[in-house]
Write a structure and sequence with these properties.
The complex is a heterodimer of chains A (about 150) and B (about 190). Chain A is an all-alpha fold and about 150 residues long. Chain A contains 6 helices and no strands. The longest helix of chain A is centred in the C-terminal third of the chain and has 34 residues, at about 100-135. Chain B is an alpha/beta fold and about 190 residues long. Chain B has one domain: Glutaredoxin, CATH 3.40.30. Chain B has helices at about 1-25, 75-90, 115-125, 140-145, 175-190, and strands at about 45, 55, 65-70, 95-100, 135, 155, 165-170. In chain B, the strands form 2 sheets. Chain B has a 5-stranded mixed beta sheet with strand order 5-4-3-6-7. In chain B, helix 2 (about 75-90) links the parallel strand 3 and strand 4. The longest helix of chain B is centred in the N-terminal third of the chain and has 23 residues, at about 1-25. In chain B, about 30% of the residues are buried. Classes of the chains: A mainly alpha (about 150), B alpha/beta (about 190). At the A-B interface, helix 3 and helix 4 of A face helix 4 of B. Chain B: Keywords: Cytochrome c-type biogenesis, Disulfide bond, Redox-active center. Chain B: It is found in: Cell inner membrane. Chain B: It is a single-pass membrane protein. Chain B: Belongs to the thioredoxin family. DsbE subfamily.
Chain lengths: ~150, ~190
């Protein structure tokens, strides 16, 4: 029994060591690599980042990113390298330009619209209430009288 | 004013419906290529069949041609070989960029050029050979520089070596007529 357990454990050790291990000169480079792998988008299997995807192009892009990180290139340089080849599409954080500005403006405009509607309605209500209430005490009196007189 | 508020949600809904409807007919793979209207990136890669010959971007200048990214492992590429061969017979110059698969040292046999050459010759004999020659992109370095996301993809490159069109997906008579032929004719005029 003991021998089987040890055998099993040994097998598990092997599967762990079969995983890809990348060496980095320092922690900052490791950090940068993982950050970029999470932020770069696979052009083949869309809606996956290159860290998640095993498409050929994602494997190549990971490898290229690793090379460029090792060469000491900055985050911006590596992003630009990929964008030059695969377009803005390849980065999960879109740049601010004439087309993408609506991503930020649309929710803001909706919020402003909602606020405008709310204000408009509130002002209307405020304008209407005094008129409606002006006659109320008298009307109430009349109603009370009416119901009182109905009672035997 | 009151009426306006009454119809606003309906108008918003219709706009949203239109937007989503247009999404049904759009191809998510269709996007502007980043390498369009740029020069063919510099490279030095061996010919697939005569590996002693090294092709460079400079050598490909002088005539408009189709650069077809393909591999024998890719079924869609094999399927378009027949139509591309027809195009070659009509006088279209087609150069192949052979997109070799990465190899996992744990599972795959090491790369062997002779096996690949045999494999390619067999496929081309079977479906037709549209290529003037094939450039072997073993590390997919030129493919990465071209912004290739997979195979098959096709570029139209003009006589000055400028990339004029980037098509993702296969080529058939319909795609050729509607998309590639107009561009090819435009750029192959002297």
């Amino acid at each position: 029994m003991k021998r089987y357990v040890i055998g099993l454990l040994w097998l598990m050790c092997n599967t762990v060591s079969a995983e890809e291990v990348l060496a980095f000169a320092n922690d900052a480079q490791r950090e940068l690599y993982y950050q970029l792998a999470a932020e770069l988008r696979c052009p083949q299997c869309q809606n996956q980042n290159i860290a998640d995807s095993n498409a050929i192009v994602a494997v190549d892009m990971r490898q290229k990113t690793y090379q460029l990180v090792q060469q000491g290139q900055s985050r911006q340089q590596i992003l630009q390298y990929m964008i030059n080849r695969y377009g803005d599409f390849v980065h999960y954080q879109p740049p601010l330009n004439r087309v993408t500005i609506w991503l930020w403006l649309a929710p803001l405009l909706l919020l402003l619209g909602l606020l405008a509607v709310g204000l408009y309605r509130r002002r209307n209500e405020a304008a209407q209430t005094p008129d409606n209430l002006a006659g109320t005490p008298d009307e109430l009196e009349q109603l009370i009288e009416k119901y009182r007189s109905k009672k035997p | 004013m009151r009426k306006l508020f009454f119809y606003a949600p309906l108008a918003l809904f219709l706009l949203l419906a239109l937007f989503l409807l247009s999404g049904l007919f759009s191809d998510p793979r269709e996007r502007a290529s980043a390498t369009l209207n740029k020069s063919l990136p510099a490279f030095a890669l061996a010919d697939l069949m005569q590996p002693q010959h090294i092709w460079t971007a400079e050598q490909l200048k002088g005539e408009t041609f189709l650069l077809n990214v393909w591999g024998t492992w890719c079924p869609t590429c094999n399927a378009e070989l027949g139509y591309l061969t027809e195009l070659r017979q009509q006088g279209v110059k087609i150069v192949g960029l052979y997109y070799e698969l990465p190899r996992d040292p744990a599972f795959d046999a090491p790369f062997n050029l002779q096996t690949l050459q045999q494999d390619v010759s067999q496929k081309l004999a079977q479906h037709g050979d549209p290529y003037q020659f094939n450039i072997l992109d073993l590390q997919r370095s030129l493919s990465l520089d071209l912004g290739v996301s997979g195979a098959p993809e096709t570029f139209i490159i003009d006589a000055q070596g400028i990339i004029r069109l980037h098509h993702i997906g296969d080529i058939n008579s319909q795609v050729w007529r509607s998309k590639l032929a107009p561009s090819y004719q435009q750029w192959s005029q002297p």
